[in-house]
Amino acid sequence: MRDRIKYLITGACAGAANGFFGSGGGLFLVPLFTGWLGMPQKTAFATSVAVIFPLSAVSAAVYFRSGGLSLSAAAPYLFGGAAGGALSGLLFRRASVPLLRKAFALLLLWGGVRALLLL
């Protein structure tokens, strides 16, 4: 029962981030998977991707129904996004955990600095 509550809380954090910010649930999932649920780092990154896909689909549907999503504005990014996802998925197997941690930390830092400076 305790694990189910942890899973629910972890998913709720990811879903809230996804709904509020358009994505970003992985920012919650990876640290919670590794630190709170004891998941290995590489498994946490891969599992995060698997969880974010359906969360993003739900968020996109809600945005679309409320008039906040333009499919024609999103369409040009789909091909590049799919190609980037496929390429990084192939390279992921070869990436070391320390490299993944550093890349993730840099992404968080870059996003945080941009968010602060663009206020």
Structure description:
This protein is an all-alpha fold and 119 residues long. The chain contains five helices and no strands. α1 (2-21) packs across α3 (41-65).
Strands, helices and their partners?
Blueprint: H1 2-21, H2 25-36, H3 41-65, H4 71-92, H5 97-117
Helix pairs in contact: 1-2, 1-3, 2-3
Q: What would a concise description of this structure say?
A:
The chain has 119 residues and is mainly alpha-helical.
Protein structure class: mainly alpha
Low-pLDDT stretches are: none
Regarding quaternary structure, what we see is single chain
Q: Percentage of helical residues?
A: over 70%
Can you summarize the main beta sheet?
none
Distance between the termini: 42 Å
Query: How big is the Rg?
Result: 16 Å
Helix-strand string:
HHHHH
Taking all residues together, what is the mean pLDDT?
A: 87
Shape: globular
Estimate what percentage of residues fall within beta strands: under 5%
Per DSSP, the total helix count is 5
Number of strands: 0
Question: What are the key terms here?
Answer:
119 residues; single chain; 0% strand; globular; 5 helices; mainly alpha
